[in-house]
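Hi, here's the filled form for the chain we discussed.

Project: internal
Contact: R.S.
Residues: 139
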Amino acid sequence: MPGALGARELGHVLAINSSVFLVGYKALSSGLSNVGIAHAWFLGTVCLAAFQVQGYVLVCAYFVFGTLATKVGKKVKIAEGTYERNEGKRTPASVWGSGFAAAACALAALAFHGDGALCTTLRTGFVASFATKLSDTVA
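And the returned structure, exactly as it came back:
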């Protein structure tokens, strides 16, 4: 359950997320535009702050599997005219199309951290949003 986020915890969240983005920049840039990376950084920060490492791993797994699914069917998608523009790199619109519901759940969980039942519901919505989006991407 999310807890109050003090300055120290926020510092840890920022350091962890920024480190992951620096180390993983090459992989991130294969699936996201540079502006998309900046938006994804914010999304990752909020999700890590609200749902700790478990939630953050879910966001990372969504990115990896979603990017792979997009690239696996590239030839078929090009022939159908459905392949992502920009060499398959996602833009901020794609980041928020995939992550808006999750970010809303994360921000609400941070705001209402003392309400255990609400936070459990928000965590369920967070997981469901990425599961739904990944199933759509893979399909």
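Let me know if anything looks off before we file it.
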